[in-house]
# Entry
Amino acid sequence: MTTVARDVVTPTVYRCIGEVIFEAVNNVDEVILASPRGFCAGVEMAIKALAWMVRTFDAPVYCYHEIVHNKIVVDRFKNLGVIFVDDLSEIPKGRPIMLSAHGSAPQVVAAARELGSYVVDSVCPLVTKVHHEVKTRANKGYRIVYIGHDGHEEAVGTMAVAPDSISRVETLAEVDALANFIEPVAILAQTTLSHRDWKDVADAVRLKYPDVWSPGRSDLCFATTNRQGALMEIARECNAIVVIGSDNSSNTRALEKLAKDVGCKNVYRVNDASELPNDLSGIVGVTAGASAPEELVAEIIRLLAPKNGVREVKIAQEDEYFPPPRHIRQLQAAIELVATAMLGGSHDSRRIVDDKKVAASTVLAQLAN
# Structure
């Protein structure tokens, strides 16, 4: 049984980060904050890795695809000289390259290593797990039915692992159109899907192929599942729900759809506080997609200015931590050794930075200064 913690938080806990001062024009009684919300472990890892590259190398640093699907985060890195590209041919030879958290096709990873002077793959470990499952099942002769959004970067990268052995589906009609494969069938999925959307399609695949193989643990990201569960916990109390995140974020769109599916008539997906309606009233629920920084939550609450404060409803404690990619860890160790030697310090007594204790939201705020 899930334990739901309901903590009352005063609005003054949340302060707008930046210079914009918002005028409170809504008539909101209370804000209910869904928790967990915002950055997941994979996004935390990717943002901190790119920040290390920005601070270590002269501009420009190149990133293959958006590091995460959030306009605010991407724009902040652009202002620091990061150039985001959708084709490696746009990158001059010898520049540092970051590969996005959504995962890249094997041939893209290989080409980047040939092209770049320093290459970091910031793929989320949960996506890496799915890539491994695709490769393993394909090598064993399976036909893989992959549930994922057409054109989404994660889906494109995953399908490229074994393109001749995989069929992508997203709807019940697409499942119905699949052939009656002679080879054994395996089912895998994009990690950021809505559980509701995934379940109906997965059930249809299992009905069509009764002996289908599936992983012992769901491919769906724990962070995505937690954010959807938290939203469902608060939705029935809310007159309106604000979902913070960008339109190209799959998990954010899933939250928006879920809020509507559970019956909330007033659902608003916003990139930041400037897109918020000024006529909200009653009880407003607030959540954020897995690539949306907490500073955006602070700005939204400041604008809503709830008369009776902020109540946080927490359904899970997320303690997952993904360490920096291997090349970043090597870079960190090298910088620490050089700095210690140049300052005349002792190797044994040098101060080691604990990446786990540094939040990506803090790193982003420091980058803006």
